[in-house]
Fold this protein.
Amino acid sequence: MRGEFRVGGVPEHFNLPWYRAAERDVFAGTSVDYSWRTYAGGTGQMLAALEADEIDVAVLLTEGVVAHIAGGGDAKILGTFVESPLIWGIHVHADSPVQSVADLEGRSFAVSRMRSGSHIMAYVLAEQQGWLASGHALNFEIVGDLAGARVALGEGRGDGFMWEKFMTKPIVDAGEWRRVGECPTPWAPFVVVSKRGFAAERAADIALVFERVRGLCEEVVEQVDATVADIAARFGQKPEDVREWLAGTRWACTQTVEQAMIERVEKTLRAVGVIED
């Protein structure tokens, strides 16, 4: 009997292997009844979907799930998906008076949801820039997703917005936004997560999913031209941008998580006040 295995992730280029797993039905004839769902709202939306049992597994940002677990959320990190840093672009509207990252001190940030990556990374940026030490509290405008951020920044609701820079590059290239800086994550950005009960009950199926998806990750790396063409077509990106992104991306897709990495995330989240005890 096949067990339902519903996986959720953002509709972004990193997740091409998960898309292909569904499109190619790579789990046919196995115990896994796999399906793939996308969540444009990012990590916060997926954590809510996990809590509501809409999905069984999520591919989401490391800092988001660490904050979720620290806050009492029912989640277990099953393994690491992408190990190379995520490059967050720091964006403002083209008409904004903001010309540099320093100009964002004391201004508001648009975020998809509280405890989302865009929310947490705004704190990381503030810590790096020394804004928290100077006593400036951060202000947030909740916008839901990337589309919501475009509307909000255009209406002047939120001065800055942080999102993966290659996903936002078409918006920057079109002249709607300006990218005033970048902020790489100091840890592996994407992990695979489920509730604790699911992790305990479906260990064999989880191992099979990691194995099959890891093979698709290897294909993405080995077949560069096909990968570039596929991502450019799916996500509306320029082939040269996809090649640059692909050259700097390393997939792991292993059932391992470095303890030192989790400690770095935890230390950072404590420093910026996202988590306490």
In short: The chain is about 40% helix and 25% strand. The first helix runs from residue 16 to 23. The CA atoms of residues 199 and 206 lie 8 Å apart.
